[in-house]
């Protein structure tokens, strides 16, 4: 059985026997180096549920209120600028963006002149960023939508997506390839996805290697880590937006981190374990506020898109 979240402390290492989440499997704490680390998370945030620790997958109930979700949907529709989703869309890779049947939704990228023209949308984005910083409270943050300096975090531009009945986004990873990271000096460290309406039929976010599928519920946030802080992608986070049985709305923002020149070699702890191999120990760098018997819960059952930067170069 997983230990209570409140028992975890900064610097403690949680060994996992395999890359899959193992329900009911015993775990022991020990200090062990080298370790792989993720963006720190506040496990004391109300409504937080732990679905997996290696790799980390969390949900937060009530991350946004029903009214805020409805306002975000209405504001996005009101712009009249939602377009067919692309793979590779966004400022950095706009020249190679492509419409594909792998991703059949519609998307609105909230940035620049669009936010200037729709102040209400800008306020909703600020609200979401405020909540996100409560969930990810540590680290140095820079201006949203701008490439972060090495070792610092920022939010990419928020995307709102709509899936009509029958639409999907087939299996994909959110992290960028290592070659891209070496050239552009940033990587996506965290994906924060907020479901803006209830979906009862289809539309789940399914992790292909983890036996985890999240059903959309209005205001619920999903947080996972597509890459390690050293910039290496974690292939275990491969996921699919299942075919929607009814209209589905989401808001999505990525947390990017500036990378120093070069990525550690693939030897030792710098390598992300493939889904069918044993996973090295990981260090869960949690918020400094730890207290026994915290309110975060282990979920019952224990069970690429483009980027939002205006330029790839500094």
Q: Measured on Cα atoms, how large is the radius of gyration?
A: 18 Å
Unreliable residue stretches: 1-20, 22-36, 89-97, 264-303, 310-314
Indicate the proportion of strand residues: 15-25%
How would you name the oligomeric state of the polypeptide chains in this document?
single chain
CATH first level: Mainly Beta
Query: How many H/I helical runs?
Result: 4
Query: Considering DSSP H and I runs of 4 or more, what fraction of the residues is helical?
Result: 10-25%
Whole-number count of domains: 1
CATH topology: Jelly Rolls
Protein name: Fe2OG dioxygenase domain-containing protein
Subcellular location: Endoplasmic reticulum membrane
Main location: endoplasmic reticulum
Organism: [Myrmecia] bisecta
Explain this structure to me?
GO terms for molecular function: iron ion binding; L-ascorbic acid binding; procollagen-proline 4-dioxygenase activity. Residues 287-314 are annotated as: Disordered. The chain has a single domain, classed as Sandwich (Jelly Rolls), CATH 2.60.120. The chain has 4 helices and 17 strands. It has helices at residues 66-78, 112-117, 119-135, 178-184; strands at residues 13-14, 36-37, 48-53, 56-60, 83-84, 106-110, 153-155, 158-163, 169-172, 186-195, 205-207, 212-214, 221-224, 239-241, 248-258, 282-283, 297-298. Strands 3, 4, 5, 6, 7, 8, 10, 13, 15 and 17 form a 10-stranded mixed sheet that branches. The protein has a 4-stranded antiparallel sheet with strand order 9-14-11-12, with no helix packed on it. The longest helix has 17 residues, at 119-135. It is globular and about 45 Å long. The N and C termini lie far apart (47 Å).
């Amino acid at each position: 059985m997983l230990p209570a979240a409140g028992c975890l402390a900064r610097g403690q290492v949680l060994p996992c026997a395999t890359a899959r989440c193992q329900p009911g499997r015993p775990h022991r704490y020990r200090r062990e180096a080298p370790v792989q680390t993720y963006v720190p998370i506040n496990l004391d945030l109300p409504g937080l549920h732990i679905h997996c620790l290696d790799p980390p997958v969390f949900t937060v109930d009530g991350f946004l209120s029903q009214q805020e979700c409805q306002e975000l949907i209405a504001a996005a529709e009101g712009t009249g600028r939602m377009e067919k989703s692309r793979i590779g869309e966004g400022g950095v890779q706009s020249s190679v963006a492509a419409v594909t049947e792998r991703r059949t939704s519609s998307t609105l990228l909230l940035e620049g002149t669009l936010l200037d023209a729709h102040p209400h949308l800008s306020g909703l984005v600020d609200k979401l960023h405020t909540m996100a910083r409560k969930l990810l409270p540590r680290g140095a943050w820079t201006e949203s939508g701008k490439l972060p300096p090495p070792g610092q975090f920022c939010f990419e531009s928020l995307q709102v997506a709509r899936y009509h009945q029958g639409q999907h986004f087939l299996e994909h990873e959110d992290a960028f390839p290592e070659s891209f990271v070496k050239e552009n000096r940033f990587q996506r460290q965290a994906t924060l996805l907020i479901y803006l309406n209830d979906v009862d039929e289809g539309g789940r976010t399914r992790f292909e290697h983890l036996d985890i599928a999240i059903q959309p519920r209005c205001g619920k946030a999903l947080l996972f880590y597509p890459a390690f802080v050293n910039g290496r992608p974690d292939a275990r986070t491969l996921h699919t937006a299942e075919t929607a049985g009814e209209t589905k709305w989401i808001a999505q923002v990525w947390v990017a981190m500036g990378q120093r020149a070069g990525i550690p070699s693939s030897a030792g702890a710098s390598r992300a374990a493939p889904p069918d191999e044993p996973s090295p120990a990981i260090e869960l760098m949690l918020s400094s506020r730890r207290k026994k018997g915290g309110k975060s819960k282990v979920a019952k059952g224990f069970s690429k898109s483009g980027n939002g930067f205006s330029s790839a170069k500094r």
